[in-house]
Amino acid sequence: MTAAAATIPANDQRALLTRYDSRAPRYTSYPTALQFSKEVDAEVYGDWLAGLDPREPVSLYAHIPFCDRLCWYCGCNTRVVKKQALISEYVERLVDELALVEARLPGRIKAGAVHLGGGTPNMLSRDDLVRLFGALRHVFPFAPGVEISAELDPAVLTESWVKAAAFHGLTRASLGVQDLAPHVQEAVNRVEPFEVVARATHWLRQAGVASINLDLMYGLPKQMTADVVATLDKVLTLRPERIALFGYAHVPWARTHQKLIREEDLADANGRFEQSQAAAERLVKAGYVAIGLDHFALPNDDLALGVATGTLRRNFQGYTTDQHPTLIGLGASSIGRMPGGYVQNLTAEVAWRDAIVQGRLPVARGVKLTADDRLRADVIERLMCDFQVDLAAVAARHGVSSAIFAADITKLAELRADGLVEVAGDVVRVTATGRPFMRLAAQAFDHRSDAQEGFSRAI
């Protein structure tokens, strides 16, 4: 992937980046969250829960919207909290939300995967962690081999917290690193020496956590290509099983704290591209397999095996091998995926809490999936995961003719002319040169979000 992209003559590369410097969805779902509406409410969600198959395990996601500090680049729903009592109260409401969900289930349903996200899940005290795990297990008994993962902030992680999480089955941890250059850390209000990350990794390894992911970013304020590579040189000494390399999404209209980042400190499209390619080259050279748009994994990791077997998936946490069709979202702003569509909880904690206290599922919005949505979600996911899609095979799975995609293929004309996409019969393939532009190829099949407004930069 990287070697081919790097062979583009500099002038041609600059021209391509200028031509396609636009905005597009990240396609962690289709339809995207911008298409969610109030047509999906608590009543609809309750019906969806009641219609689940008790024989089919589900995935669980619990959102913990608290942090010890406010990182200016962050696009998540979170806030700084210093009082542990507020966090404990939130956990109690999570337990209550679980009870509301349980009341609508058709029977006992097992959990095949559990993810704690945020925010900073390790802001939970050990007692609160035990309380939450107990409630999760009570409502959704954990299936044999359940995968339990958590997003962690190394700066506030303790060895005792790691031991408690490992006791309850933590199998994978994702540590937020972003960049280790002091001037970049200061520019995003996240000062975190490498030693802190190394210490956290050591605790997790000692506790038997088998898989560690490090989150890194490019395109941050004042960040240079040399900073990205130097960060990689340090973290690769820890030999994490996975590395997620995200491009910073500057969306100050959606996250007002991002206004603290000066636009003039951000790299242009050419600079972002250079940073991402240099990082990818370094990772591939170190023996990691490139996974989709922005993930890398060691060859024996489940993600790499998912690429080899064609079973890689994409969801709100990025690339995954989680095959469960249902995701139950818990907590303020959490998003769930049901057979009937997507559902999102109320974002504001006060409104979320009030709904639960009143005995209502705390739903804000969502989207009901149409047959066309399912068709296009299939195409987009395969493009995002495999860099190619057999439209005839997808059409057959959905009981339609591949001719339905004729207009979408026409939208690819410019990308094809520039050598970024190839079409052979019913097979659409993103070329090695075109992989950084993959979101734009996927957007050709998107019938819901043609406009750029609200999305991050595509490259």
Work out the helicity level. Answer: 25-40%
The assembly state of the depicted protein chains is single chain
Cα separation of the termini: 15 Å
Question: From the 3D coordinates, which CATH architecture of the largest domain would you assign?
Answer: 2-Layer Sandwich
Please list the strands of the largest sheet in the order they lie side by side: 9-10-8-7-6-5-4-1-13
Q: What's the CATH first level of the largest domain?
A: Alpha Beta
Number of domains: 2
Whole-number radius of gyration?
22 Å
Provide a count of the helices.
17
**Largest sheet report:** 9 strands, mixed
Low-confidence stretches: 1-7
The fraction of residues assigned to DSSP E strands is 15-25%
Structural class category: alpha/beta
CATH fold node name of the largest domain: Transcription Regulator spoIIAA
Average the pLDDT over all residues and give the rounded result. 93
Shape: globular
Strand count: 19
Structure description:
The protein has 459 residues and is of the alpha/beta class. It has two domains: 1-24 and 369-449, Arc Repressor Mutant, subunit A (Orthogonal Bundle); 32-330, Transcription Regulator spoIIAA (2-Layer Sandwich), CATH 3.30.750. Helix content is 37%, strand content 20%. The chain is built from 17 helices and 19 strands. The protein has helices at residues 2-6, 10-19, 42-50, 84-104, 126-139, 159-167, 182-187, 194-206, 225-235, 269-285, 302-309, 349-357, 371-386, 391-397, 406-411, 413-417, 438-443; strands at 58-64, 66-67, 79-80, 111-118, 142-152, 172-178, 211-218, 242-247, 289-291, 295-297, 313-315, 318-320, 327-330, 335-338, 341-345, 363-368, 388-390, 421-424, 427-430. The strands form five sheets. Strands 9-10-8-7-6-5-4-1-13 form a nine-stranded mixed β-sheet, sandwiched between helices. Helix 5 links the parallel strand 4 and strand 5. It is globular, with a radius of gyration of 22 Å.
